[in-house]
Amino acid sequence: MRWLLVLFLLLPGAAHANDWAALEEPGAMAIMRHALAPGTGDPAAFEIGDCSTQRNLDDRGRAQARAIGAAFRERGIAFDRVLTSQWCRCRDTADLLDLGEVSDAPALNSFFQDRSTRAKQTEEARALIAEASGPMMLVTHQVNISALTGQFTRSGEVLVIRLDGDDVEILGSILIEP
């Protein structure tokens, strides 16, 4: 039984589940994987400006995004900036969070189907975080979060992070199920 506890504590983010206090740490930022959107990747005919060609949030995903935003507002947590990938599932998540004006950040766009942009986009995302003058919410994709933090995230999961030199430190994790 003791080994189960040890295994649980070794899992990425397990010791920090719903760690709201992590957002109070100096330099803390939130980076979120978009809410539930059934499937994997996008169709071959995918176009950024056309949501009908993309994998999108379902009803549970929209409810999850609203619930996450409500949980932040109930705790009085605000962000100076809300940045999002240009993919519809991320944009819709960011809008439904209702945590402030949402701006596109191409550095947060998925590179799932074209890994050649991984290093460049990860550095651009790191620069966005480094240049922030206050708390920021970033809404993006699992591949982007993994490249930046080394941690896999579930749909709708928020990692609380901060830059520590060139490294990204994970301070906690928040997950609100739909």
Helix-residue proportion: 25-40%
CATH class: Alpha Beta
The CATH topology turns out to be Rossmann fold
Count, helices: 5
Model regions low in confidence, pLDDT < 50 over at least 5 residues: 1-16
What is the string of SSEs from the N terminus onward? HEHEHEHEHEE
Oligomer: single chain
Radius of gyration: 16 Å
Give the beta-strand count. Answer: 6
Report strand order across the widest sheet.
Answer: 3-2-4-1-5-6
Structural class: alpha/beta
Shape: globular
Mean pLDDT: 89
Tell me the name of the CATH homologous superfamily.
Phosphoglycerate mutase-like
Number of domains: 1
Strand content: 15-25%
In whole angstroms, how far apart are the ends?
31 Å
What does this structure look like?
By secondary structure, this protein is of the alpha/beta class. The chain has one domain (17-174): Phosphoglycerate mutase-like (Rossmann fold). It contains 5 helices and 6 strands, in the order H-E-H-E-H-E-H-E-H-E-E. The protein has helices at residues 2-10, 59-74, 88-97, 118-131, 142-149, and strands at 29-33, 81-84, 102-104, 136-140, 158-164, 167-174. Strands 3-2-4-1-5-6 form a 6-stranded mixed beta sheet, sandwiched between helices. A hairpin with a 2-residue loop joins strand 5 and strand 6 (167-174). The longest helix has 16 residues, at 59-74. It is globular, with a radius of gyration of 16 Å. The two termini are 31 Å apart. Residues 1-16 have low confidence and may be disordered.
